[in-house]
Amino acid sequence: MPRVKKSEVAAAMKPSRTPAQLANDARLRAGKAKKTPAKQLDSPDFHVKRNMIGPDDVGQPHNEIAISTTGKATAERTLNLDIVQPGSMLAKAENEKYMNEPVEIIIEADDDPNAPLFVHSAHNGVTQYIERGKNQIIKRKFLYSLLAAKSARLVCSFGRDQNGKEFNRLAGPSRTTHRVVVINDTARGRADYVKWMSEA
C-alpha cells in the first residue's frame, strides 16, 4: 500500500470554508431563525414580546376514577363539563378567527429513540405535521390539538377511610403526549396554553 504524504493529509484535513466564512454562515442562520414571515402575522400584538411558556411552567392535571366497592363494578370519572348555550354566529366566527391565529412553537426532543421526527396534529379533519426540535409557526388550533393529546399514569388505591367505609380508586397525574413550548404568542394565547395544559 502506498505511503500517504504529510502534505496530502494536511490538504485533506483543511476545512472547506475559512473561519470568516463559517462565522458569516452562523450569523446568517441566526438572522434567518429570528425572522418571522410577515404574511403569517395576522395578530397586531403577536410580535410585541417573546414570552416563552412550556410544560414546566404549568401544573399537571390530576385524574381520579372512583370504583364502586359494592354491587356491580362501575368506574366513575370526575368530569368537568362545560354546558355551551346556543350562541350567535358572531361569537363562533370570532372564536374561529382566534383559533387560526399564528403561534410560534417548538416540540422538544423525545426520550424514545423511535419517536417520529415529524409529529402529526389534526383539528376538525385538517392535518398538520410539525418537525420536532425546530421553531415553527402554526395555527393555534393545531397547538390545541397537541395539548389535548394526553397520557395518564394511574395508581390503584384500596382501603378504608377514617369512617371505616371502603374505597377503591384510580388516581394520578396526566401529561401531554408531546412537550410543546410556546416561543411567541399573545397574552390571551399564553393564558389559554395554561388552561389547556391543566385540563385532564
User: Quick check: average pLDDT?
Assistant: 75
Question: How many structural domains does the protein architecture include?
Answer: 1
Q: Which outline best applies?
A: flat
Strand content: 25-35%
Helix coverage percent: 25-40%
Task: Pick out the low-confidence regions.
Answer: 35-41
Structural class: alpha+beta
The largest β sheet comes out as: 5 strands, antiparallel
Quaternary structure: single chain
Tell me the distance between the termini: 68 Å
Listing every helix as H and every strand as E from the N terminus to the C terminus, the arrangement reads: HHEEHEEEEHEEEEH
How would you describe this protein?
This protein has 200 residues and is an alpha+beta fold. It has one domain. It is built from five helices and ten strands; from the N terminus they run H-H-E-E-H-E-E-E-E-H-E-E-E-E-H. Strand 1 and strand 2 form a beta hairpin. Helix 4 runs parallel beside helix 5. The longest helix is centred in the first third of the chain and has 16 residues. About 4% of the residues have low confidence.
Please sum up the structure shown:
By secondary structure, the protein is an alpha+beta fold. The protein has helices spanning 6-13, 19-34, 89-99, 140-148, 187-198; strands at residues 62-67, 75-77, 102-107, 118-123, 126-131, 136-139, 150-152, 155-160, 166-176, 180-184. The strands form 3 sheets. Strands 1, 2, 7, 8 and 9 form a 5-stranded antiparallel beta sheet that branches.
